[in-house]
Amino acid sequence: MNEFALVWEHRDMILIGFQNTLLIVVLGTVGSLVLGVLLTIPLMSRRRGPALIGTIYVDAMRCVPFLLFAYLLYFALPSLGLDFDNWWTGVVALILYNGAYMAELFRGAWANLPKELIEAGQAYGFTGWVLLRRIILPPVIFAAIPLVGNQLIQIVKDSAFLTIIAVAELTHEATSLQTTYFVPFASFLAVVFLYWLTCLSIESTVGYANRLAEVRR
Amino acid sequence: MTSYDYYSIAYGALATVSLSLISIVLGVPLGLGLALVRWSRLPVFNQLTIAYVSIVRTCPTVTLALLIFYALPVVGISMEPVSAGILTLTLSTAAFNTEIWRNALVNFPQDQYDAALSFGMNRNLRFRRIILPHISRTSLPALVSEMTLQVKSTPAVAIIGIVEITRAAIRVGARTYEPLPPFIFALVLYSLIVLAFVKTQRAVERRFAPPGDH
Amino acid sequence: MTDDQTTMSQLAVQQRPVILEVSGLSKSFGANPVLRDISLKIHKAETVCLLGPSGSGKSTLLRCMNWLEQPDGGTVFLAGQPLGARPGGGLRMRDKELAAMRTRIGMVFQHFALWPHMSVLQNVMEAPVHVLKQTKDEARATAVSLLQRVGLAGKMDSFPARLSGGQKQRVAIARALAMKPEVILFDEPTSSLDPELVGEVLAVMQDLVREGMTMVVVTHEMGFARDVASRVVFMDGGHIVESGPPDQFFEAPQTERARQFLMRYAARNN
Questions:
Q1: DSSP secondary structure string, C166-201?
Q2: Which CATH class is domain A3-216?
Q3: The total number of structural domains that make up chain B
Q4: Which residue of B114, B120, B133 is in closest CB contact with C127?
Q5: Does the CB of C65 have a partner CB in chain B at under 8 Å?
Q6: B49 lies in a domain?
Q7: Which pLDDT value is given to residue C63?
Q8: A and B touching (3 or more beta-carbon pairs closer than 8 Å)
Q9: Count of CB contacts below 8 A, A vs B?
Q10: Residues A63, B194: contact at Cβ < 8 Å?
């Protein structure tokens, strides 16, 4: 119990880590959703060039463990002349990595879209960007919501890997708390609990969004 | 990079894959056992399983590894990094496998179960001869897909000092002062391993797709 | 048949031993009663067809007869022995005993319920080998001859997914027969079949009747009930409304509800 009291005393450390994790997850979510949608367009393109490039990118990301990818960026970005600090490197890694997974989810939803729906749009004279934005993307996104929810949980879990490149997120703060005061049990249990809370709130939000989307499917 | 460096990274990859495979071999039956606990609604154990699945499913593997490696000794269970790594990975994949098996059990066709009952099969026989062969087939695609995810999250155990692919690459990088080449090599190597799983997954999905699903 | 002859044959049936008896059976799903105080005796070599509109409780009654559905009250007897167990009720039967009694009651399901991971032959051999502990050779010999009898000797090694609905149901009948049951329960055996496949299944069932099998059949096949049943039991709203020989039921139904049912049925089929 002493342990828990110590952790409570130093809760500001845990809270800083929690704040960072939440911020990283929010940025990662928004970024990977945007990247996912943008990537879906070449993936579904009828032209072979863009489709091929999109597929290679998505498949490559799906074959790489996140930790190795984050490390790669950590070492590679500076040599490309991009001087990001660890924190931003982590965010960029999350976005580039999970964006590919999001794109794959959207591609699947798009492929399952009834052809008539798109044809009806075309019949009413929609083309190009407007067709995409008004007719195709909304049902694709509605259909993908439950799977997107799973991917968001994955973003939360991936964010913990960033401790290894010394990003001051939740797990990292718990580790430094434990090495300073030797309170492994309480500090790790506390962060496991915070991850759990985060994911539960994500799941209930996604569940709510899914019910809203239900009537529009 | 010397050929020894390549060798040490490849060796690390082998360690990672072995850890993944061990956790899969342990985690798939463990998940089945826990799914049966949930299915039979054994009081207390059912609630414990629900809690376990809910927490572990949302817990980052890195964090779980730290918890098991550093916190369990506090309650008197201390483990070598490798055992702690295997325990971490097994608990983590078993949580997902529990949900997969349970889903298959819940969706098991009632009339096939009734048929087994009406032929006087006892619980053991019903499970072994009728239910298990069926749910193994229906769960396989999801199980293989979880295996792929598992192989990808295995590098997490690097944090407790297991020399797997990530650590091997770091070591080489630290010695040669050129961190990039060992990581590129590690990535390529690992991608090939995951690719093998992804290919298997696609083959399994095609082979076991329910009729009329296309 | 004249009325006198009908009565005579009814009397003859009633002198045969009772295989299955249902007494005072009641069952509700939630607040919704589906069986209200049902009593019924099935004699040896009788073919009893349970007719009635959907939701009348006939399938539930059939499923209570081998305890796939637990009634809330009442008892089922197989050859005089009570069957099943009720939590809190007077009757308690261990799973093992219940299983042993179920082996004596065959069942054929609406959606066949063949085990999809086993070949046709394995489906038929499964319970004789693993429940009745017959040797594989013995079970195989029986299975082969039964499959020949239902005209499917050529499909022994096929898997159920490769068969037509009619073929699946014939396998299901062979599977039930392999247990040498004292009575077979048929739960709408032709309802999920395409119309052109109904005949082959009914033909097999007709053979069974001729051979003196005891059968309880929930069905919507009025022609089958009329030609083959030894007795028709008409249910509505969880009650047995009318029970009697098929000629009487189809020519001169005693109750208004049965008349309505037959009229609606005739209208639908014209």
A1: HHHHHHHHHHHHTT--SEEEEESTTTTS-HHHHHHH
A2: mainly alpha
A3: 1
A4: B120
A5: no
A6: yes
A7: 93
A8: yes
A9: 122
A10: yes
Q: Let me know if residue B159 belongs to a domain.
A: yes
Residue B54, domain member (yes or no): yes
C1 pLDDT band, cuts 50/70/90, is very low
* Residue for token pair 């001729």: C210
Q: How far is B30 from chain C (nearest CA, A)?
A: 24
Q: CB B190 to CB A189 under 8 A?
A: no
In this complex, is the C-beta atom of B125 within 8 Å of any C-beta atom belonging to chain C?
yes
Shortest CB distance from B62 goes to which of A59, A60, A163? Answer: A163
Chains that touch A (3 or more CB pairs under 8 A): B
Give the domain extent around B13. Answer: 3-96+139-208
Which residue in chain B is spatially nearest to A186 when comparing CA positions? Answer: B71
What pLDDT band is residue C3 in, cutting at 50, 70 and 90? Answer: low
pLDDT per position as a tens digit, B98-143: 999 999 999 999 999 999 999 999 989 999 999 999 999 889 889 9
The 3-class SS string of C203-268 reads HHHHHHHHCCCCEEEECCCHHHHHHHCCEEEEEECCEEEEEECHHHHHHCCCCHHHHHHHHHHHHH
Residue B194 has pLDDT above 90, yes or no: no
Q: Is pLDDT of C38 > 90? A: yes
Residues of B in contact with A175 (CB under 8 A): 66
**How do residues A178-188 score in pLDDT, each as one tens digit?**
888 888 888 89
A195 and B63: CB-CB below 8 Å? yes
Is B132 contained in some domain?
no
- Note the pTM of the prediction, 2 decimals: 0.83
| B47-86 confidence digits (pLDDT tens) | 999 999 999 999 999 999 999 998 888 888 888 899 999 9
- Residue B52 amino acid letter: Y
Asked whether the beta carbons of A79 and B180 are under 8 A apart, the reply is yes
The domain that contains B69 carries what CATH number? 1.10.3720.10
Count of other CB atoms within 10 angstroms of residue C112 = 26
Q: Where are the domains of chain A?
A: 3-216
